[in-house]
Amino acid sequence: EVQLVESGGGLVKPGGSLRLSCAASGFTFSKYTMNWVRQVPGKGLEWVSSISGSSTHIYYTDSVKGRFTISRDNAQNSLYLQMNSLRAEDTAVYYCVRDYQQVYVGWFDPWGQGTLVTVSS
Amino acid sequence: EIVLTQSPATLSLSPGERATLSCRASQSISTFLAWYQQKPGQAPRLLIYDTSNRATGVPARFSGSGSGTDFTLTISSLEPEDFAVYYCQQRTNWPFTFGGGTKVEIK
Fold first, then answer.
1. What residues in A contact B32, CB-CB < 8 Å?
2. Chain B interface includes A47 (CB < 8 A)
3. Nearest alpha-carbon partner for A35 in B86, B98, B1
4. What does DSSP assign to residue B81?
5. How many CA atoms lie within 13 A of B81 on its CB side?
6. CB contact, 8 Å: A116 with chain B?
7. In B, which residues are within 8 Å of A45 by CB distance?
8. Could you report the per-residue pLDDT of A68-77, keeping only the tens digit for each?
9. Do A22 and A112 touch, CB atoms closer than 8 A?
10. A45 contacts B36? CB cut-off 8 A
11. What is the pLDDT of residues B23-70, one digit of tens each?
């Protein structure tokens, strides 16, 4: 069974940093593009970042470029999101999401349970 | 950035009725559109990808259609477990974007 378990969320002050982790199991991690998608509680979904299986291709949404860094450790079956210079508008549930297929990038499934990041003074 | 506009925002229907949800793209996205279902307190789940392909385990009552800029998700006969929020998403261009969602609620 595919499992994605996020950790690392919490309360942080504006300008602070946080590192999210996602532990993956039940599939060949290195063969899949992995993603972070966030959701403000009660609101819609926003794609944040993607990283290819070999870390060759990395993409970010404009609002986090220069502040967030996605990375992965295929030996540890883990995905990370380093978040620096956090802003109130980064407050959201962050989901770790696998690409649905190995071949085509951009369809998201399955999803982890999410970890809440709250940026507030 | 490609903007996806979903309508209506809320759909009030009874079990057994047919649900028709719309997603319109700000520019052509060919058939690179997916639909997700999200129930309260849960993560989203992929239902349909590439406009009309059902993801593994998705019941046949869910179907998708469209191309270019106009897309539709149809639930042929609503089951109690189908009342949820539905999002469309495109993967034609980075950044990948989602629509604002349609809530299907019990009438």
1. 106
2. yes
3. B98
4. G
5. 5
6. no
7. 36, 44, 87, 89, 98, 101
8. 999 999 999 9
9. yes
10. yes
11. 999 999 999 999 999 999 999 999 999 999 999 999 999 999 999 999
